């Protein structure tokens, strides 16, 4: 039993670390801020959950697992807010490489006179 | 503050804060519960939040289905973004798509946006609160078909959330729209 | 277990170095904010992995704090340090608001 949990823990930890590395590679290779943010979401959500699961499989006590749950809840509740703030700032401040966009319906809506970020046109 | 049940939301907030407080200490004791109540009261008095209109109810089974599907999406989207990060050669193209939600309440808008941002490969760049429209940045689109698939995925996510939290009327709205998909937009 | 320790350490070290590359190269402040977030996630992963492999829970409270702090950090940087080329139309657009709209 102990052996199984330890192996599961090791698998979770290695996968989590691997996700972080791939995210870092994406961060270096992707061409603009918004694409890089897609890469950044990985270790912050799935990677973190895997690491937390890895800790849980190793420690296996009630108090520690509630703390782990708390970490997961905080991270999952706050990460989207930060991501949205950064994404919106990037989109509004001309940092997006528009040549890479297949289509941009936010700008289309702005051209239609209805809405967002009208100055981006 | 809604006139119908002004205390229901407050009560929920107190229970939630006390729970968090006890989890922070790692154990439930009388002292922790009392301390948590004091802190919760202080927080709610000092930082009052606008009431969220919640007209639906929580349904356990659809909630479970949403959670399970969320985990599946999380893993598959992570794998997809990982693949496009590792692939050599061409730069990934992306798109900003507009997705008008069928249930444009604040709560549904927030929940859908949160769930969407947690999954890699989709990112909210703008929110039109009045129209209930999310502007989503999608990574790695090659053709028009990819765009439509991404839009359908966002709407399916919204449908799962509404089935788990919405009122009966909102669920009907979502279901009606998903039966004649394709003209949904 | 030694194999696991070495593998995890090597992966996280490589990840941290690559994010540092992005932090140094930029080019914009937002790139650096995003990269710093990833670096923080790597640090959280390293602390967590260490706690798991040595079977202790002393660093878990630090992880709780970091889970909140990363968010506060990037939100405040974006909110106060990044000034998008905003015209007066921000106010004219009125009803459109999102999390943390400018006052």
Automatic annotation (TrEMBL), chain A:
Record key words, sorted: Membrane, Transmembrane, Transmembrane helix
Organism: Micromonospora pattaloongensis
InterPro entries, per the entry: PhaG_MnhG_YufB
Short name of any one Pfam family annotated for the protein: PhaG_MnhG_YufB
GO molecular function: sodium:proton antiporter activity
Similarity annotation: Belongs to the CPA3 antiporters (TC 2.A.63) subunit G family.
Keyword Transmembrane helix: yes
This protein's record includes keyword Transmembrane helix: yes
Record protein name field: Multisubunit sodium/proton antiporter, MrpG subunit
TM segment ranges: 6-28, 65-87
From TrEMBL, chain B:
A single Gene Ontology CC term: plasma membrane
Keyword Transmembrane included in the entry's annotation: yes
A GO term, aspect molecular function: monoatomic cation transmembrane transporter activity
Membrane topology note: Multi-pass membrane protein
Subcellular localization(s) per the UniProt record: Cell membrane
Keyword terms, alphabetized: Cell membrane, Membrane, Transmembrane, Transmembrane helix
Sequence intervals crossing the membrane: 36-54
Keyword Transmembrane assigned: yes
Pfam families: MNHE (PF01899)
Similarity section: Belongs to the CPA3 antiporters (TC 2.A.63) subunit E family.
PANTHER family attached to this UniProt entry: NA(+)/H(+) ANTIPORTER SUBUNIT E1, NA(+)_H(+) ANTIPORTER SUBUNIT E1
NCBIfam families per the UniProt record, alphabetical: PRK08965.1-5 (NF006521)
Annotated protein name in UniProt: Multisubunit sodium/proton antiporter, MrpE subunit
UniProtKB/TrEMBL annotation, chain C:
Coiled coil: none
One GO MF term attached to the UniProt entry: sodium:proton antiporter activity
Record keyword Iron present: no
Gene Ontology cellular component list: plasma membrane
Membrane topology: Multi-pass membrane protein
Residue ranges crossing the lipid bilayer per the database entry: 33-53, 60-82
InterPro entries the UniProt entry points to: MrpF/PhaF-like
Region of interest (Disordered), residue spans: 83-103
Record carries keyword Transmembrane helix: yes
Feature: compositional bias, Basic and acidic residues: 90-103
UniProt entry keywords in alphabetical sequence: Cell membrane, Membrane, Transmembrane, Transmembrane helix, Transport
Subcellular location(s) per record: Cell membrane
Protein name in UniProt: Multisubunit sodium/proton antiporter, MrpF subunit
């Amino acid at each position: 039993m102990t052996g199984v949990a330890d192996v599961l823990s090791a698998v979770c930890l290695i996968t989590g670390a691997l996700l972080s590395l791939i995210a870092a590679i994406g961060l270096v290779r992707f061409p603009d801020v918004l694409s890089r943010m897609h890469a950044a979401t990985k270790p912050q959500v799935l990677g973190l959950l895997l690491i937390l699961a890895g800790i849980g499989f190793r420690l296996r006590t009630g108090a520690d697992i509630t703390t782990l749950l708390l970490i997961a809840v905080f991270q999952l509740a706050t990460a989207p807010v930060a991501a949205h703030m950064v994404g919106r700032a990037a989109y509004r401040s001309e940092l997006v490489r528009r040549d890479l966009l297949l289509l941009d319906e936010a700008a289309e809506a702005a051209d239609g006179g209805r809405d967002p970020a009208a100055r981006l046109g | 503050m809604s006139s119908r049940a002004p205390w229901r939301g407050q009560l929920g907030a107190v229970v939630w804060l006390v729970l968090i407080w006890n989890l922070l200490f790692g154990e439930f004791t009388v002292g922790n519960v009392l301390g948590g109540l004091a802190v919760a009261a202080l927080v709610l008095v000092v930082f009052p939040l606008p009431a969220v209109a919640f007209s639906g109810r929580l349904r356990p089974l659809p909630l479970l289905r949403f959670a399970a599907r969320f985990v599946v999406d999380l893993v598959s989207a992570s794998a997809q973004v990982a693949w496009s990060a590792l692939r050599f050669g061409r730069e990934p193209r992306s798109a900003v798509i507009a997705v008008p939600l069928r249930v444009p309440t604040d709560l549904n808008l927030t929940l859908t946006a949160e769930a969407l941002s947690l999954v890699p490969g989709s990112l909210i760049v703008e929110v039109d609160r009045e129209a209930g429209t999310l502007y989503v940045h999608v990574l790695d689109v090659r053709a028009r078909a990819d765009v439509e698939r991404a839009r359908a995925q966002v709407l399916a996510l919204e449908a799962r959330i509404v089935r788990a939290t919405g009122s009966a009327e909102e669920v009907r709205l979502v279901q009606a729209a998903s039966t004649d998909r394709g003209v949904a937009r | 277990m030694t194999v696991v320790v070495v593998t995890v350490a090597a992966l996280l070290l490589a990840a941290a170095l690559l994010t540092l590359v992005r932090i140094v190269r930029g080019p914009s402040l937002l790139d650096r904010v995003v990269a710093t977030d990833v670096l923080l996630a790597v640090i959280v992963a390293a602390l967590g992995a260490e706690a798991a492999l040595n079977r202790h829970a002393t660093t878990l409270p630090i992880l709780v704090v970091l889970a909140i702090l990363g968010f506060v950090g990037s939100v405040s940087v974006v909110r106060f340090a990044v000034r998008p080329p905003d015209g007066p139309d921000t106010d004219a657009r009125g009803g459109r608001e999102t999390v943390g709209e400018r006052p």
